[in-house]
Write a structure and sequence with these properties.
alpha/beta; four-stranded mixed sheet
Length: 291
């Protein structure tokens, strides 16, 4: 068992040597669309409709159909909005989606979205008996569907056990997005060599804002602009990464999508680069040697 603090030492973007981006760019925006597989035969990954008397039913039709709306409608709204903003996102994808929703997976593949492995189905990683097998299965299914083997990993719900990162690197993945502990990438030690932690976000994320905290429809726009403005100012000294995490059944809803579109209109008025996880990895590896 390896504890997280044994995998990386303490440091801060305010005291590290500065990171620079190409040209006039000040900041990296990492857009992540989470595409999940909710199996109707198990409890739903999240609940919008609270079950009567607090008992979780199986099958949970009210919440499964909420998720299904995202796959049928919300995904396509997000895809159109990102295309109009000139953004090629990273797609965090449960690999089974390639089999059960091939139309969605193919549309993302054909638009050159990056596929980031996100396990096979949406379930707690702590309940997976053989993590190695599921990580390999996820990568194999994505590679078969896209012709490219994924290089990045995000655990369901950003979950890990103490040994998950060792399994991730053993399976050939080179970066991950589970840790939200910094505004810059960091090298992390594993039994199979270093892996890069690419900064994701728990609070610039529609699940936290809309589902956990039940904010109004425009909160992703307002909060992300607040975060962006501060990170952009700090990026004058050293580049920062801002991740935006969305889900089709949340931000893809009719009453929220216009605020997502307005957010990218605002961001694109600044000197930023919209990069995928692999692009962030390549840039950082060229700035800071793996260790």
């Amino acid at each position: 068992m390896t504890l997280p603090r044994e995998r990386l030492s303490y440091s801060s973007p305010f005291t590290r040597p500065p990171l620079r981006l190409p040209g006039k760019a000040r900041m990296i925006v990492w857009s992540v669309v989470n595409i999940e597989e909710w199996e109707i035969t198990r409890p739903m990954a999240r609940q919008l409709s609270q079950p009567p008397m607090g008992q979780t039913p199986i099958p949970d039709m009210p919440n499964w159909t909420w998720y299904e709306y995202g796959m049928r409608v919300g995904f396509w709204r997000l895809k159109r909005a990102l295309h109009n903003a000139g953004v090629t996102p990273t797609m965090s994808i449960n690999a089974k989606v390639c089999e059960t929703y091939p139309e969605v997976a193919a549309a993302a593949r054909d638009a050159n979205w990056e596929f980031m492995a996100h396990a096979f189905v949406q379930m707690p990683i702590q309940q997976i008996e053989d993590q190695r097998a599921v990580i390999r299965q996820s990568c194999d299914v994505i590679e078969k569907f896209t012709g490219k083997r994924p290089t990045g990993w995000l655990g369901p719900g950003r979950g890990q056990t103490f040994d998950t990162l060792d399994y991730v690197t053993e399976c050939g993945l080179t970066w991950f997005g589970d840790w939200i502990l910094d505004d810059q990438p960091l090298w992390v030690k594993t039994r199979h060599g270093p892996i890069l932690a690419v900064p994701y976000s728990a609070e610039i994320n529609d699940i936290t804002l809309m589902i956990s905290h039940h904010h109004e429809s425009d909160v992703l726009l307002k909060r992300t602009i607040d975060a962006f403005d501060r990170l952009y100012a700090e990026s004058a000294d050293s580049a920062r990464v801002m991740a935006i995490g969305v889900h089709p059944y949340v931000t893809g809803a009719a009453h929220r999508i216009k605020y997502f579109e307005e957010l990218y209109d605002y961001i694109n008025r600044h000197d930023v680069v919209h990069w995928t996880g692999a692009q962030i990895y390549d840039w950082y590896a060229g700035q800071v040697a793996a260790r």
